[in-house]
Design a protein that fits this description.
Elements (H helix, E strand, L loop, with lengths): L10 H6 L6 H11 L7 H8 L8 H14 L2 E5 L5 E5 L11 E5 L5 E4 L3 H19 L9 E4 L2 H4 L2
Parallel strand pairs: 3-5
Antiparallel strand pairs: 1-2, 3-4
Helix pairs in contact: 2-3, 3-4
Length: 155
């Protein structure tokens, strides 16, 4: 793959969780790093099979589930019958906290960061209250709004 001695940001996380840094894991994480789209397992398979022709779709699915369990990758359901995946943090270790607007007509997904500070404040209070009331240790949340995008509403 021509990696040389690059220190990839996810290597320490994999090793810290007791996983080896395999070519398959590395190529999947690399594919997710190089896109701003929400890729399905099939999309990832098509993106990586040229560089790693021996990788199978089942390996992609298994690896993605491990990466989701480890907290390196988010798994989303945007209502189109296919799970989509996105990195939790970018290569510079920035947490790209955002939420999604999903068009129920064309299935377009828009990432947004507007009002994130307000949402974080509200969600912190909500999570604290829910955690206390239900004795539940909340680890994460997903916010998705469904509707019709501007392109579809003008057609």
């Amino acid at each position: 793959m021509g990696r040389g001695r690059r220190d990839l940001w996810w290597q320490g996380r994999l090793r810290g969780c007791g996983y080896r840094v395999t070519a398959g894991r590395e190529i999947i994480l690399d594919a997710l790093t190089k896109t701003d789209k929400h890729l399905s397992a099939e999309d990832i398979y098509l993106a990586v099979r040229k560089a790693c022709p021996g990788i199978g779709l089942a390996t992609i699915y298994r690896t993605l589930e491990i990466l989701v369990e480890m907290g390196l990758v988010f798994k989303f359901d945007f209502g189109d019958g296919r799970a989509r995946y996105e990195l939790v943090e970018g290569p510079n270790k920035e947490v790209a906290h955002h939420h999604h607007l999903v068009c129920t007509n064309c299935k377009r997904v828009i990432d947004y960061t507007d009002f994130i500070e307000d949402e974080i404040e509200l969600l912190a209070k909500t999570e604290k209250g829910l955690s206390k009331k239900y004795n539940f240790d909340i680890k994460n949340h997903v916010i998705q709004f469904y509707g019709i995008c501007g392109n579809c509403s003008t057609k």
